[in-house]
Amino acid sequence: MSTVALIDYGSGNLRSAEKALARAAEECGSGHEIVVTADPKLVAGAERIVLPGVGAFADCMRGVSSIPGMVSTLEEKVLSRGTPFLGICVGMQLLADVGREHGDHKGLGWIEGEVVRIAPQRPPGNAEPLKIPHMGWNALSLSSPHAMLDGMDKADVYFVHSYCIVPKNPAHVLATTEYGGEIAAIVGRDNIIGTQFHPEKSQAVGLAFLQRFLKWRVARVS
Fold it and tell me: pTM of whole model > 0.85?
């Protein structure tokens, strides 16, 4: 049976993500086993990898890096072998070069760019300023066609975050959302995709997205 490695590094709502992925696998008939693991050997044998994340950028990066062999295994699997990879929330933010939450902290550097605090513009008139963190349902706006995003244009998904990724290459932004300005909601390249929103909390839209991830076929990374 093919496995999906859901990486446990001491951060993230693993139970919700595990349940959502298991349901997606059952409903789409992909046959995947969802394995929550902090063992690089199990990650090395997985067909797909999911990196969740809740909390501060530096804490999450420290958690991943503190597992002996985890970062090198991820680089081998994802960058060299083209294993399908999904990063969720801070797990997506870690793809950047640097996170600027409470100082500057090095990320994985898989998608060139930075993670910065959301700075929403004040609404016109007497409207209350938008609150940080950005929490709740917001609509997606697709930037370009992508096999993973079929039917997601204008779909509502669930966000909880105070920081956002700003890729250097605009082509790496696959979808945005509006919250006092445009925010990257989905980023990706090659076999890598990341969501600022939580698919596991986004009901039918999120479940369908996870189903597509389990069936996603990508060209071999050169």
Answer: yes
- Residue 18 is among the residues annotated as catalytic for this protein: no
CATH number of the 3-215 domain? 3.40.50.880
User: Residues 114, 100: contact at Cβ < 8 Å?
Assistant: yes
Q: Is 28 annotated in the active site?
A: no
Given 18, 89, 114, 161, the catalytic residue: 89
Verify whether residue 200 is a known catalytic residue: yes
35-65: pLDDT as tens digits: 999 999 999 999 999 999 889 999 999 999 9
